[in-house]
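Researcher: Let's run the pair from yesterday's discussion. Sequence first, then tokens, for each.
Model: Starting with the first of the pair.
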Amino acid sequence: MRRKFRMLFNFILFRRPAMFTLIALTKNVRHLILAAVTVCTLSFAFVPAASACGPEFECAETYTVQAGDTLYGISLKYHVDLWTIEYMNYVPNPRLLQVGQKLCIPNITPKSAPRLSIVGVEAGRTVTVQVENLAPNQKVDVRLGKNGTLGVNGEIVGTATTDANGKFSATYAIPQALQADSIIAIRVESQTGRYAYDWFWNQP
């Protein structure tokens, strides 16, 4: 009996610090696990929805992805930069769009910005444009260029003078070097540095 008591006394006396250390470590591990679970939960809670539009712009339209759609094709359709659509909709992989997925098409053109609209195209021959929100009574250059250039350093196909409201409309001949291109970039530039650009299908 005395021997058992001594063994118990020695265990409590010499092993107690180790026991307390083990208990303390166990508590710390529990706290770490709890913290990790909390962080993961909050991360999932604040992941933005795939179809949510970013805070910088408003949705001009919501597009539903159809079979065969690509982000590039959608950007061409709405004249919005591909990367803008990708960023605004938090698209993790632009090659993996899902049929039925909702995409916010942002309105990124302020009303005061120069605006270039394609009114009509006679394939391989002419393009008719309408421009607004430029400075009044000012000369502007109209350029046509290869697709993807935004018309920068394109061939000057004509000049125009805006009216008192900063608008003009005109028809321009498509240069021979671009007549066989299916997509052509167009750009208007004013003397004050304001500009607008667009593109059009050069097909029958």
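Model: Moving on to the second of the pair.
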Amino acid sequence: MVTDGRLKPGEPLPSEAELARQWGMSRLSVREALQELARSGVVTVRHGKRGLLNDVGKWSPLDPRVLQARGLMSGDPLDVPRQMIEARRAIEVETTRLAAERGPAEDIDEVERQLGIMRETIDTDYAAFSQADLEFHAALVRASGNVYLASAYAPLEEVLHVVRIRTSAQADIRRRALEHHTRIFEAVRDGRVQDAGEAMLSHMDQTLDDVINNLGAAAFR
């Protein structure tokens, strides 16, 4: 109804009774679903009136449940991953530099452990590979020792999980990711601050290129 264009931003939603009939749900379930959508900024619930569909600019960019629809409604399904990479560059290049400069040994060990899992699962379990990829980045952020950068990164993790599962399904993308993660880890381990930041920046560029060139807009539909 929303993504197929039948309902435009600013237009009233069908009544709860109509939605319940269409979807074979109780009105209570419909009401709860609308409240969830309201919390994500997708709709505005109005007491005694039909709700309204909000413009996509008001939708939460951090709710993975609306990630797919957000991309479709924006008119450019690649806009979501593109903006996400921009945010990650701003956070992770610096946290990686800081990890190389002052990361505690136990955090660097965890980065290495997750890299090992990526190596072990690259050809056998892309879901496990994807999870280790996410844990690798989270460990690097912790290793920076900067609570503000870590707090800025935390809301992205759930959305990253959705995106990473899709991209990691491609074997060639997994191989490139492993190469980049290895270079990042080695620079951090050796305390090469500038190299570590440049390696992470290169990885961010690689990630966006892989989405555009190998998966295209269909990956986020």
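Researcher: Give me one sentence on the second I can quote.
Model: Strands lie at 43-44, 52-53.
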